[in-house]
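Quick question: what would this complex look like in 3D?
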Amino acid sequence: MEIFGIPSQALFGQLLIGLINGSFYALLSLGLAVIFGLLNIINFTHGAQYMLGAFCAYLLLNKLGIGYWWSLALAPIIVGLTGVVIERTMLSKLYKLDHLYGLLLTFGLALIIQGLFRNEFGSSGLPYRIPQELQGAQNLGFMFLPNYRAWVIVVSLVVCLATWYVIERTKLGAYLRAATENPQLVQAFGINVPRMITLTYGFGVALAAFAGVMAAPIYQVNPLMGADLIIVVFAVVVIGGMGSIMGAIVTGFGLGIIEGLTKVFYPEASNTVIFIIMAIVLMFKPAGLFGTQK
Amino acid sequence: MSGSTPSTSHTSSPAGDELRAQKIAFLVMVAIIAIAPVVVYPVFMMKVMCFALFACAFNLLIGFGGLLSFGHAMFLGSAGYVSAHAAKVWGLTPELAILCGTAAACGVAFVSGLLAIRRQGIYFAMITLALAQMIFFFCLQAPFTGGEDGIQAVPRGKLFGLIDLSNIAAMYIVVAVIFLGGFLLIFRIVHSPFGHVLKAIRENEARATSLGYDTDRYKLAAYILSGTIAGLAGATKALVFQLASLTDVHWTMSGEVVLMTLLGGLGTIFGPVVGAAVIITMQNYLAQFGAWVTIIQGVIFVICVLVFRRGIIGEIAHALKKSL
């Protein structure tokens, strides 16, 4: 069977890879958007924290014998706590300054974290096994769908939508959105805004680590696995505009699919297509597809 | 160039004082460039000068325009590739090869600048980073760049068809002239009326707009100037090392130039030069330790941001109550 002169196997195969990549774009840009909303900084360490999540799962398995399922809960907590420490000891000192200093600080932290892990583990990838329950594949008639990949897509969709629900539909989310608009006023109502900022950063970092654990069995565990990814995610964030949670999710998945399709129809451009889309969006809608220019 | 002193210098003595301090600092710098080859390797000094010019160009944009570019490697790298290609494949003389590379960087700056200045602050940084990554992938795949190998064994050629630049002393003088010329050009830009408008935009863009300045045009002009001078540094560097490679277009290079400028002092005249010298020296001595270079650079970033925001020259200038 062929579609547009492309074997359907190849087309659906790339579409699946696109959806998987899109899941990670969505999870990571969601974390960036949540952090940016309240802290007004771009977390350059995000890629390194995604890598930390994967390494955390790897070390839990190989040093302590703790498997994938526990890692899925433990790694985000552990890495999230390191995020809390970073926010309390360093980022909180910068809120009164130009936001660019936050970017520079987190860039420096990313260099340190990635350098330390590269020193310790080298830059070749380390394998992480797919958990037993998710091995194998389903025959869908038109293609084989590996169980683990289906799991990644479903879980990241669920996590994204749950985050959206918490922020847009619950009382906690309402406080959060209010603090984004006007922190002084919210503090005057007796809400501990600094603590909220700390926890928000921790949560955003935990999301990155969660994505890292999910990615460990698909891509190998590698100290630089987040370094190039984060730049693509930045482009995703610029395309979507940082104002909207749903925007981050939709753009993440959408761009993953577009990238996958580009690999089928014009492979030479598959590395650059997201940046080209970013350039086009900037020309016609500088605030991003879902953003509002402040 | 040195005759073009700002008009304020004759009228008020503090400004004259300021200028005198900068003149002394400039003379010290020239003296160091003249004497250094006796003490250290000339190639090392040429590397420092290329990166110092690169950092000065970057500083023109952030220090005086308030725009943080996280993609300056695209100018350094693309200019390097074009000048290497021009010298090796087209067989042009070095001055024409450097001119070609610089012009290429100018073109890249014009196109990317039109896109990037549509957003400010953090977005500007992210957009320039993404555009630079696009250039990186282009250089990785384009047929003339040699992919992972880069363009190797670039001939230095004969300057104006006369002076053989494989002679290290001749090459050193050429690099020194290019560096000092670029440095004085930036000095002139900063002290020109254009530079003052740029500073006004950095301080308060809304007010500059309300005074009737088309701020986007000023920002674009500053961006193009910065990119072009960064390209001049890259084109020269390709001839000095006879190599154009992916390292120069990679995002780590964009990060390095931020670090040099931050360490030396954002918005100071001499800071980027000192920052570049310190970072290049450090890389030279720590090269054997591999990933430790990255870690130390990260640590310097964190320290600079948390407790040392003025940078080396910024602190000295603050202590002397002068601007350097």
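Answer marked as accepted. The mean pLDDT of chain B is 89.
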